[in-house]
Amino acid sequence: MNEENTEKKEKTEQKEHSEKPPVIEAPKKVEQKKISSRFNYDRHYKLLLLIPVIIFLASVIYLGVFYSKNSDIIHRDVSLSGGTSITINGEVDQDKLESGLREKFPDVSFTKLEDIASRKEIALIVESSADSENLKTEIEPILGYELTEQNSSTEFTGAALSRDFYRQLVTALIISFVLMSIVILILFRTFIPSIAVIFAVVADVAIPLAILDFFGVKISAAGIAAFLMLIGYSVDTDILLTSRAIKSKEGTLNNRIFGAFKTGILMTLTALAAVLPAFFIVTGLPDSFRQIFLILSLGLFADILNTWLTNASIIKWYCEKKGIN
Q: Which of helix, strand or coil describes residue 209?
């Protein structure tokens, strides 16, 4: 009896096992595995390094060609090169004024000032390297009335004073960069990570500068100040990345880099969210303010590439060579 019961039990278990449907692996998991292996950061991070490096080299070459042609690295406006700035109150026909002045004053430029609420034109700024009396003499017949203290204001900056002011600004920019580099070298005390941070900051300045020169934007004293601000903005994310990757021991190297990326990209996007609306939406701001916002925006976009592709790739490469996991 016991043998019969055992035999029946074994047959029942075999029948149940044969009736069980086969386990089929979900196709989604296989697809996800293929995708993750195709876009493997550990395998392709050195290739990502090439993208910003090529952009940086193209910018440096363009700046070199620009300097050889213009004997300067930027287009300077009246505040840095010397000349006259006349602000004409009220609505002015800019096209008529420009066609009348362009032949005699090739370097003349115009900036409209508008009311923030109504978007109504409140003034027009005319700038040129010409003498104020010569410029006034040509403007008045075109407008059909005399320029007085009631309907306009005139500012003249001497060329010697402007050159001296420009030299001081450039000197301040160079000194701030040198001091920043010294602080980075003292902070990390290793050559390659320090050079990676310094390289990223240089690229953050060179790329926007090349773009501005390419489009013929005249940089004012406020623009030089914006580049000073950009050095401070860009070095923050690079220090964050390098400190997390090298000095922290929590998690794997990729986790530390990704953690730094989440924090750093939030910082950069927050700064962009502050300056981009001011540049594109607010039209009544002075031209110097708009230039600051433009330079900061270009620099912050460049910083995303130079920090999270260039610097991150160099740091990861360095950590792998040194056995830092």
A: helix
Same domain for 217 and 193, yes or no, is: yes
Which run of H or E residues covers position 152? strand 152-157
The answer to whether residues 125 and 86 touch, using CB atoms and an 8 Å cutoff, is: yes
Name which of 18-22, 91-95, 154-158, 191-195 the model is least confident about: 18-22
219 bridge partner residues? 76
Quote the tokens at residue 186: 């003292």
Q: Which amino acid, 34?
A: K
Residue 213 neighbours by CB under 8 Å, 6+ apart: 62, 63, 66, 73, 74, 75
On whether residue 125 sits in a domain, the answer given is yes
The upper half-sphere exposure of residue 253, i.e. CA atoms within 13 Å in the direction of its Cβ, equals 18
- What digits encode the pLDDT tens for the residues 55-68? 999 999 999 999 99
What would the pLDDT profile of 150-183 be if each residue is shown by its tens digit? Answer: 888 888 877 777 788 888 888 988 998 899 999 9
3-state secondary structure (DSSP) of residue 48: helix
Alpha helix (H) ranges present in the chain?
Answer: 2-19, 27-38, 41-48, 50-70, 78-81, 94-101, 132-143, 159-188, 191-214, 221-242, 253-280, 287-305, 312-322
- Counting Cβ atoms within 10 Å, is residue 267 exposed (0-12), middle (13-18) or buried (19+)? middle
Instruction: Check whether 37 has a pLDDT greater than 50.
Output: no
**Among the three residues 157, 174, 208, which one is the final residue of a domain in this structure?**
157
pTM score, whole prediction: 0.76
Residue 228 lies in a domain: yes
